[in-house]
Amino acid sequence: MEEEEAEIYDGVRAQFPLTFGKQSKSQTPLEQIHNTTIRKAPPTSAANTETQSSSSKAWPDSLRPTPKSSSNPTPSLGPPPPRPTGSNSFVAHVSIGPPRPQARGVDDEDDGEVMVGPPRPPPGLAAAAADDDDGDEEEEEEEEEEDGVMIGPLRPPEPADSDEEDFLYRIPTSNEIVLGGHSKVVSALAVDHTGSRVLSGSYDYTVRMYDFQGMNSRLQSFRQLEPSEGHQVRNLSWSPSADRFLCVTGSAQAKIFDRDGLTLGEFVKGDMYIRDLKNTKGHISGLTCGEWHPQAKETILTSSEDGSLRIWDVNDFKSQKQVIKPKLARPGRVPVTTCAWDREGKRIAGGIGDGSIQIWSLKPGWGSRPDVFVGKGHSDDITCLKFSSDGQILLSRSSDCSLKVWDLRQMKEALKVFENLPNNYAQTNIAFSPDEQLFLTGTSF
Description:
Keywords: Repeat, WD repeat. The chain is mainly beta. It contains six helices and 24 strands. The strands form seven sheets. It has a four-stranded antiparallel beta sheet, with no helix packed on it.
């Protein structure tokens, strides 16, 4: 009984700001929260104690080259390396920016000359290189490169500019919390623009709503929804004003919910006996993806297994604004596996079941004929498309275990192809970092 009352209280309390009402106890200090959520370092062993540290802040630092000398030492980000003894001793530190020049093949313990050339590897990597020099043929075979993917022991780092060197430190891996609750695969995540609420959808047919401002130490969701009974959740998308969100399931009808999880409406379903998709009032087969317009809070986009993309007005759930039929090599119905807006909301991209990527520009008098057509973008279903903010780069993820980078000004061939990325789920996504210098995707390991 007490647990039920606590859950009801948490759900109601999450709807109000923290300053509402009298606080029965003081707020937890931010420093204590930070220390509680610190991510633990990977387990260490006797074989790799030199390359890994027991501190969550130290283990990435062990992968960074250590500069040789400096007249103005700076505070270290991790445990300092052992200080050498002798006449040529120096103060070791972790630098910020490109490494100082070093000499090739010259040991500063011999004559103390200024080093010029690439930096030396850290102690752990140097030990690995020494083992290779002893004649371990099996490790040498594992170091072969295929399509830019390194297999085997790490090689000594090469000279790089400060941006590349700091990539490791721009990935947020210092703290983490685990939001449990789902019983099957988590297939969709959406964070509102204020960063206070998170939605998670799953193959267990439910959507869970988390509120960071009203969350207690149990880290539980304040509301659980089942948008469409018996249908997996495939995508979630917040409106630009974060007052509503779109839920796309395996059914033919998308739903709109308000910020508190109350149903606002459900889009109409089309007549499955009408052959021409442009004459149906809505989708007639299961949805595959959906996104809210990045700027217009009344417009959304959906794609479906019926072979069409549709633009809707959220103020009218019974009619659609536009029906888009992709270009096909032969007549028929090929599913549209994913869709995406660009950052300005002026272009739409669709991933088609035949492996093609098609892009439409929203302009007066536009129709279903794509402005950009890539016939063999992938050899299998495309699971996600993502535009860069400047509208010049497009990322595509596919079930053919690859991720491709496209230049939208020249779409004949991909700029870069990343292979050997296992993908067994139709909702495997892509995301850019805030400065768009990095991007990430999930893999089915």
